[in-house]
Amino acid sequence: GWTVKHSDGNIYLNPGIPEARQLIINGVLEIVENYPVDGIHFDDYFYPDKNFNDSETYKKYNTSGKSLDNWRRDNVNTLVRDVYTAIKSTGKSNVRFGISPFGIWANKDSHPLGSDTRGLQSYFSHYADSLYWINNGIIDYIVPQIYWNIGYSIADYKKLSAWWENAVSGTGVDLYIGHAAYKAGNPDPKSPWYGTAEIERQLLMNDSSKIIKGSVFFNYNVMAKNAALTNTVKTVFDRRDGKTPKVNVKISRPTSGITTSMTSFYINGESDPSQPLYLNGKLVENRSPKGYFGVLVPLSVGKNTFTLSQTGSSDTCTITRTASGSEKMSSVEIPSTSVFPQSQEYRMPGEKITLTCQAPAGATVTVKLNGKTYSMKQVSGPTNPSGLYKATYSVEYTMPSFSGTPRNINLGAPVYTVNYKGTVRTKSAPANIGVIMKGSPYYAEAAYDVVDTYNAPVSGNGAAYELYKGMVDSVTGMTGSYARLSSGQWVFKDKVRIYSQAAPTTPVVRRATYEAGKDNDVFELTMTSLAAAIVSYDGQNVVLNVSAPASAALPKLPNNSIVSDIKSSTSIYATEYVLTRKDNAIIEGYYVEKTDTGIKLVLKRKPEVQSLTEPLKGITIMLDAGHGGSDPGAIGPLGTRYSEKDINLALAIKLKKELETQGANVLMTRTDNSTISLADRLTASRNARPDMFISLHANSMPDNVDISKISGFSVFYREVLSKPAAQLVYDTVIKEHGKNKHGVNKKNFYVTRNTWAPSFLIESDFVPNPMAFEWLTNDAEQTKFAKTISSAIVKYYMQ
User: What distance in Å separates the CA atoms of residue 466 and residue 449, rounded to the nearest whole number?
Assistant: First the structure.
């Protein structure tokens, strides 16, 4: 018979029988001569595999003594040639003949002309000699089935497509690529076939070729059922044809390919609202009416590719997630940058510091300081490593006490030693540790107009107080970039002049006065020299701490003062004044200023409404449109084309107009897209001394949060005197706009730490949230929002 029943259960026509081949040729001719077809296409299996039962046929028809492999290949080549000749003999020049062989012709380790692959080989398994067909011109086109992803180690799409390009180059045979559409849409995010991104990458790679004529997708059923894949393919080809959608899909967040250790990431952007949107083949839900979207995606270790697509448009981003784990070391050592301290360290007797260094995990580490050696404990890193991994070691050290004249004592630089399996290394710290005795003549003088102070030697939590140029205080500690003053506050060392003297010099408060005024009350101190002073207010008491003893009597308070009492306590180093607010009085602001003879503490009264028709007349309000210029602020669906800085400025301009209609004098920290530092914003407020300061912002969240589910309004303040105004604005906005409640929160933001007037920061809503972004960019809604804030401020001053 002409057929062979194979082990796979199928029945095959035997290519070695001439009559079987002729049957196929006759069938092709019947189709071409009787039907208006454009071509005849053969799939990949000629022989199913090497174990084909054709031994009797081989004996009968192998008249030239060829090997079985070459005889089988010759049978296939003869069939291909005869089909090609038969089609051309019909005179129908429009009918083309092509074949889609298995994607690997041969591996180069099996054949010198093969590809850099390690997979099944059609030349040996199917006896399909594609190069013969191409080089002899017995096909019009070829469609190799490159059903593997780019970068696949066994059969890389990129390498194979390049191999096939080289195979057809200069032959007149057209090359089309067969793509594995059936693999797209894999539900595993770790799979290269997750979503539709791999197919898109392959099509875009094809675009860079001058030889690849097009693409064929296996199979139709998959394409018909996978709308995302169909849209992805259509989008690529529409771009080739110059077609563009009404709104192109654009990813705004992340702004470019990034690397992160996070396990998820929030992707933000815009799309055409009239078309369904797909993320790696899955429908994106909950877009805003304008097509803005926000999706939290999981990240696998390594590269993660995400494609947002809809008919006619797509955009792709790559996020690389790094693996967490211990850091390897190349040798036994104590890294020089890991030893403490890196700069001069000072503390007072009895204080504790932590000596730290890094060394291989599992080692024995010691440190020697001031003539004594201490064992260190491993506090991080693997506990039982199989190799050299970095770990941190530490030991707590108590500063020793000394007697005699107050002075600074140098203990020297700590010397660290590691012993790892007999290998010993030593590293000295690059700086010394020292002790500052109480009363040591070691001073810091503020070198700038304003010097921020901090509660701890870190600036991330915001400044606590301000010092002014020329103010002097004793230094009681030093670490890193910071020096500690006798008040316990820390300052940056480069913001002060630090110096020693042979003997102590102590400023003294010689006189204290108090004057009550219409707008402000003033408590003034006269000193022998300018001492550091910091002030705070808890809603009842204003506390002024001066780094100087006092010999002056307390002043008698006038009847119209806004404080009921002044108390003081003094020592040989400092004086504390406590001014208690009268029960019916309002302290609307407070601040310290230098004078020619010392300092004055200004207590601000709340402005009184002068006109019911213009209730804010005579009141100065400063509006601070957050961010600007090179600082976009929070990024939303439109990216930097319209970010938080633009939202803030638009609202500031609207609010300015509303406040001015109520009679207010409105100042702006910026009126255009300028870059203004936080320090310059605060300086503008300090110089103007407005009656109220409002910083306008819109919110965001970390990149690993699903911000599409978070929206709402919040207000932030630092000073207790700012809370009443902040609370009133918050309550009014919540009532009028129905926003989700994120509260009135106390936080030390840079621009709200000014103490001279009620100062607060509003977060209008969340920029990356698609629905909130529409509200934030809606002109009518923002006009209404500005009116609401303005009405709350009027109400505050009318109270």
Answer: 10
Nearest to 265 by CA among 195, 314, 318: 318
Structural domains of the chain, ranges and CATH numbers in brackets: 3-179 (3.20.20.80), 250-320 (2.60.40.10), 336-432 (2.60.40.10), 442-500 (2.30.30), 509-605 (2.60.40.3470), 620-798 (3.40.630.40)
How confident is the model over 235-257, as pLDDT tens digits? 888 878 887 778 999 999 998 88
Q: What are phi and psi of 214, to 5 degrees?
A: 170, -165
Cα–Cα distance measured from residue 729 to residue 623, given in angstroms and rounded to the nearest whole number = 14
DSSP string, 448-516: SSEEEEBSSS-STT---EEEETT-EEEEEEEETTEEEETTS-EEEGGGEEEEE-SS-----EEEEEEEE
Helices 18-34 and 68-89: crossing angle in degrees, nearest 10, is 20
Nearest-angstrom CA–CA distance, 565 and 543: 12
pLDDT tens-digit profile of 391-448?
Answer: 999 999 999 999 999 999 999 999 999 999 999 999 999 999 999 999 999 999 999 9
Would you call 775 exposed, middle or buried from its count of C-beta atoms within 10 A (0-12, 13-18, 19+)?
Answer: middle
Eight-class DSSP state of 557: P
At residue 257, the pLDDT reads: 86
Whether 540 contacts 569, CB under 8 Å: no
**What angle (nearest 5°) sits at the alpha carbon of residue 676, between those of residues 670 and 680?**
100
CA pair distance 380, 340, nearest whole angstrom: 16
- Rounded CA-CA distance 544/452 in Å is 16
CA distance 259 to 369: 41
Q: Which residues contact 584 (CB under 8 A, 6 or more apart)?
A: none
> Mind listing the pLDDT tens digit for each residue in 381-397?
998 888 999 999 999 99
Distance CA 103, CA 747 (A): 63
User: % helix / strand / coil in the chain, to the nearest 5?
Assistant: 25, 35, 45
DSSP structural state of residue 614: S
Q: What number of other Cβ atoms are within 10 A of residue 196's Cβ?
A: 28
Counting DSSP H helices and E strands in the chain, the numbers are 14, 46
Helix or strand run (H / E) with residue 446: strand 442-446
Tell me the β-bridge partners of 373.
Answer: 368
| Distance, CA of 650 to chain centre | 25
- Is pTM beyond 0.85? Reply is no
Residues in the chain: 799
- Other C-beta atoms closer than 10 Å to the C-beta of 498 total 16
φ/ψ region of 629 (left if φ > 0, alpha if ψ in -120 to 50, else beta) reads: left
Question: Residue with structure tokens 């066994």?
Answer: 154
DSSP-assigned letter for residue 397? E
Coil/strand/helix, residue 323: coil
Q: What is the mean pLDDT of residues 508-523?
A: 98
Smallest CA-to-CA distance from 451 within 490, 486, 477, 487 is with: 490
Range from 39-48, 74-83, 101-110, 724-733 carrying the lowest mean pLDDT: 39-48
Distances (CA, A) of 731 to 146, 740, 748: 63, 11, 21
Cβ pair 326, 381 in contact under 8 A:
yes
Report the chain's C-alpha Rg in angstroms: 40
* Per-residue tokens: 480: 């890193």
| φ, ψ of residue 93 in degrees (nearest 5) | -70, -15
CA distance 599 to 577: 13
| Banded model confidence at residue 10, pLDDT cuts 50, 70, 90 | very high
